[in-house]
Amino acid sequence: MNPHAATTTGSTVHRTETLATRVTSAEMQTIEAAAAGSGTTRSEWLRASALAYLQRPHQSPEVSLEPAILEEIMAVRYLVINFFSMANQGTSLRTLHGAMAVADQSKHGAAARVLSSPGVNPTP
Fold first, then answer.
1. pLDDT, tens digit, for every residue of 80-93?
2. Which listed site, 7, 83, 93, 110, has its alpha carbon 20 to 30 Å from 56?
3. Which residues pair with 12 in a beta bridge?
4. Interior/surface letters 53-87, b for 16+ CB within 10 angstroms, e for the rest
5. Would you call 6 helix, strand, or coil by DSSP?
């Protein structure tokens, strides 16, 4: 193996460390196919893949579920709004938007009341 290997950008990099691992025959075939498909050697492909993986944002056990919960709540909100408008054909879009605005204005206070006093009715 040449420790003075040329990179894909053409510059020469002096690599002195070796990284080794064992894989199954099936894994080796998959790796070789991926390397061949990208037009690089197996070593170059593995190096690029490992370094690319390190650049990705990773989830940790402490990842917040808040975005996923908010997305689900928003999906339910849109379903309710659409079903309400279908069930009440006579309701104007302006009335529907007004009701949504009131809900948006009061949701923070209602949530704060529920969080500070569980079991108490949050309706103002």
1. 888 888 888 888 88
2. 7
3. 6
4. eeeeeeeeeeeeeeeeeeeeeeeeeeeeeeeeeee
5. strand
